[in-house]
Amino acid sequence: MTDHNTQVLFNSSPDGMPTPDNFKIAEAPMPVPGDGEFLLKNLYLSLDPYQRMLMGGGWTYSPNLLQPGDLMVGRVLGEVVETNNPDFPVGTHVVGRLGWQTHVVSDGTNLDFVVNPKDGVPLSAYLGVCGSTGVTAWVGLKMTGQPKAGETVVVSAAAGSVGSCVGQLAKDMGCRAVGIAGGPDKCKLVEDEFGFDACIDYKAPDLAGQLKAAAPDGVDVYFDNVGGEILDTVMGQCNRLARIPICGVLSRYNDAGDAYGNKNMHLFFDKSLKMEGFVLSHHKEIWPQARAELEDMVADGRMKYRETVAQGIEAAPEAFIGMLQGNNLGKQLVKLG
Ligand SMILES: NC(=O)c1ccc[n+]([C@@H]2O[C@H](COP(=O)([O-])OP(=O)(O)OC[C@H]3O[C@@H](n4cnc5c(N)ncnc54)[C@H](OP(=O)(O)O)[C@@H]3O)[C@@H](O)[C@H]2O)c1
Question: Do 56 and 158 belong to one domain?
Answer without folding.
Answer: no
